[in-house]
Amino acid sequence: MDHVQNTGNGAAGGGIVAITADFGTTVGATADPTRSWSTAPDRT
C-alpha cells in the first residue's frame, strides 16, 4: 500500500474534512476496515 492510496482512502472516508489528513484517514479506515493500515505511518 502506498502513500497515494493512504491519503485517497482518507479523502473517501472523510469527505470535506479530509483537508485534515489525519482525521480523513482515520474516518476512512473506520469506514473500510480492510484499509485499517491507513492509521499507521505513511508507507511509500
Describe this structure in words.
Helices cover 52% and strands 0% of the residues. It is an all-alpha fold. It has one domain. α1 (3-14) crosses α2 (21-31). The model is unreliable at 1-6 and 8-18 (pLDDT under 50).
Structure, briefly:
By secondary structure, this protein is mainly alpha-helical.
Q: Kindly estimate the percentage of residues that lie in beta strands according to DSSP.
A: under 5%
By DSSP, the count of extended strands is 0
Radius of gyration: 9 Å
Q: How many helices in DSSP terms?
A: 2
Keywords:
mainly alpha; 2 helices; disordered N terminus; 44 residues; 52% helix
Task: Produce the secondary structure layout.
Layout: H1 3-14, H2 21-31
